[in-house]
Amino acid sequence: MTRRSDPDRFNVTKDALVPGVFFALLVRWCVAAYPYSGYKKPPMYGDYEAQRHWQEITVHTPIVQWYYNTTQNDLQYWGLDYPPLTAYHSFLMGLVAEWWDPESVRLFASRGYESDSHKLFMRWTVFLSDVYFFVTGVLCLCIDLERVRFREAKTVFKRTDLSTVLMLLYPGIILIDHGHFQYNCVSLGLFLWATFFIVAIENDVLATIIFCLALNYKQMELYHALPFFVYLLRKCFIGMPPKGKFIYFIGNFNKLAVAVLSTFIIVWYPFGGSVHNIVQVLHRLFPLKRGVFEDKVSNVWCFVNVFIKLKSYYTNETMAQMCLSMTAVASLPSCADMFFRINKKKFILCLINVSLAFFLFSFQVHEKTILLVAIPVALQLPDDPFMCFWFLLVSSFSMLPLLIKDGLIIPFVGTNLIYICFFTICMHLARVNAGIFSFMNASMVARIVQEKKESSVLLKLLSTAFFFSLLGMFWLTIGSVFVKPPPQYPDLFPLLVSMYSCCHFVLFFIYFNYQQLSIPFYLPMPKVKLN
Amino acid sequence: MIAQIALIVTTIKVFFIPLYYSTDFEVHRNWLAVTHNLTIDQWYYDNTSEWTLDYPPLFAWLEYGLSHIAKFFDPKMLYLTNLNYNSDMTVLFQRLSVIALDIVYILAARSCSNLISNGKLLVYMLLVTNVGLLMVDHIHFQYNGLLYGFLLFSISNMIKSNYIQSALWFAVLLNLKHINLYIAPVYIVYLLRAYCFTVSSEDGCHTPWYSFSITNLIKLAISVVAVFGLSFGPFLDHLPQIISRLFPFKRGLSHAYWAPNFWALYNFADKILQIALTKAGIFIPKSEATMTGGLVKEYDHAVLPSVTPIVTFALTFLSMVPALIKLWNLCADGRYRGLSFIRCMIICASCSFIFGWHVHEKAILMIIIPLSFMSVLGVVDGRMYLMMSTIGHYSLFPLLYPKNLMSIKLFLLLTHCAIGFSTVPFLYIPPKLKYSKRKRFLRLPLISHAETLYLYGLLGLFIFENVLHAAWGLNKTLPFLPLMLTSVYCAMGVVYYWISYYHYFLTFNLSGVPTVGVVNLNRYVKKVN
Prior knowledge:
The complex is a heterodimer.
Chain A: H1 17-32, H2 47-60, H3 84-100, H4 116-145, H5 160-168, H6 171-181, H7 184-201, H8 204-217, H9 222-235, H10 245-268, H11 275-285, H12 300-307, H13 310-313, H14 316-340, H15 346-361, H16 370-380, H17 385-398, H18 400-405, H19 409-430, H20 442-449, H21 456-482, H22 492-517
Chain B: H1 2-15, H2 24-37, H3 57-73, H4 88-113, H5 120-128, H6 131-141, H7 144-159, H8 163-176, H9 184-196, H10 214-232, H11 239-246, H12 262-279, H13 309-330, H14 337-355, H15 365-374, H16 379-395, H17 406-423, H18 425-428, H19 431-436, H20 449-471, H21 474-477, H22 481-506, H23 519-525
Helix pairs in contact in B: 1-4, 1-5, 2-3, 4-5, 4-7, 5-15, 7-8, 8-10, 9-13, 9-14, 12-22, 13-14, 14-15, 14-22, 15-16, 16-17, 16-22, 20-22
């Protein structure tokens, strides 16, 4: 077989790749120059202090005590509440910090430690983690995008360079990781790698292992667990021989089960001294005590709470049960569809739907959790640019109150502007007459993605809706920044923002479910070796 | 895409608002106060602050205009005695004024890029995303964007053969910042040959004296004199004072941080000789001031003869003369003289940068910005641009010394270089060769092995400065080593490329003109007379 006829051979457009990636990294550093959460706000500070504190704890206390309340480890003060991999990561950084600047991780004495050089050190740790996990993951997935599959159109949004840069410029993750200060890039990067192994390589065992690692970095990755589980389970049935069906299935399933179990055992081994230890860790990871939501979140419960005070009617336990059942109901259609009418193209949509269902209905949701929905949506963007772009804008808007609190209003506006500009540049490369406001024009976006005409009335309607949605976001942003709310409603604007984005998310939830259900059944073929 | 790129760059500028700014911030604040509160006959006499007004009158007028907007932001910044005042509103106003005035630069970049047929967008992008301007104007704080905007307008008008307009723009520029006097000879030679002699000869050597048009010369003179009159007119009584402010010779040969020019190499050689001779047992009288000590001082060389301003001016002028003569000859041909004009301007700017007295490192932008325009118009220019923009912008790094700016300046430069290196070479490498020739690992396109290695050396230098220097504990014993290494390393590159570009210009002959990208330029040539 010659190289030319090799079906796996494909070209990668590299024109704007290197400058674009450097630019995306530059934007990260521009945001990083701004204050982090809890900047000079004693006594509790913010997420930055939490991360620093974890370094302090992991470096100075024995490993079994990390999740326990001891004299050295006060769990009331930013106790560790993420799974072991986060703790190991903190430990590693803590070691570096101790070598670089021992004062910053001194037990007890370092609480509230803030200095410019330490900020720089912490920013670098996020940056390097981002480059190592997230940027590489995005790059791999985007290279895969350009492989033209059967009967699929090659569009500008599937060019490797443009799609990579567009995804790296997504404001939400930049603002939260490099501005607000968190390490979402690690878990999301691992998640991207797992997705890459499922979508592109079709190596299910590796995908499982990497996803387990992501899960062990942040328990929030459970939002993505269902689609992975359903998809991999269904794949165990594919290609059954007529005889020995059961053994075939067990064989396939065992491979994955062993992968999961061994990953978990290796990660949890240092805590595995007794069952009690593990229960304690789990207790830390899933704190039932902390109410159904904190601050103002754009999910259904927060929305309902405006009209019916949930906390006065239900205890935390009944609330948790309600959340669980609602989440299960909401994610059922998408999962069932995935199981019975499997199609590889549905995988990403299923991820969107299930994580959105979790975001809207589950217990103890943070506003930052929207990132778990946004990243799959960003993966879906090349196929459905208009709606996904709209969703991504709304998702970063929904975090506005948090960002204002952190003093990140300039980066918020700036990164969103850059993102919009880059999107229109992509459109311009496909159609020369696309101007700077063309991203609001649904029919133009549709024409770039596919040649066949859709009903133009619907697209016009969508464009108008997008325009008014943007207008609403614009005025709400202006209001949140400049208008002083009336004294009896101090939380007026955060509440308005979260309700406004919640309405969007519910509608998007319906839309993406419809999208998934409308994709036909198509069995992913097991890889046939060509000689 | 023009609007999008401008918007993206502007957003990046807005990001820089709360970052570090240098003493130039206070300089400009003080000028706002001076021009706002005093009558014009006192502007150049006031010395309440140590940062006295030392720009030409038009710039003072500009500050006067700005001060009337400034009072809506924070009237306190206009108090003369309010030294080092930096309220949030003051910072916001000053930064926004730079960003707003940059519109001139963006428009000028657009008008320049419109002259080019192949690589129009590229030139626009290279000009607008110029890292030096981003660093110097929007972090360090200055108004260079506006000034280079005027220069670009002048260039674009010159290429379109609108000589009077071009001269007007340049006269305005001169009255905004007098450092541009260094490139004035190019304008004089070019306007004389191309505008005052109405006939262009094909052979290039012969000057048709009979076609000298005295009316054109008078038109030119009137327009230039009018601008100077407007600018200096109100200050006629105080001219000596202004001159003494504009040309202070009390400063040293090199700036606190040596600009990467010939004198950096000279100073370095002096230091080396001093150390070597001391080691060899020969007594050297110890010099008083360390050159890199931060404050501006006069400095006597220990071994090599000390340099006086006269010497530097003589050297600068002498080094310009061959290029100017060549320009005179090249101007004879009507088709390509626009390009020769810009090339000569680059060379003269380099001459002044390399041999000038008390050169600031920022002056390298005067080389890089015209070069960005030339980068798509010839393979040698393209290569020169790639090298000079990398070296030159790198040499600006010490301006932004705070540690938290390290990564920002690094990625600014990397982005800009990546744009250059991933686009400019492919205008010259035929597409067939792109695939047939196996590209070696990490080899940069269009430039040779040694040049690639030199550029990677910059990366090594960067790592040394920011990590190893502190890690090895050298910051206690040799605190100024990184600065010195940067300027010497960059100086070698600058001097080398200046020589090679000079050689290219002097041996340039019209029969071998590359035709890439000049197609569109011919359109304007027909307008000549």
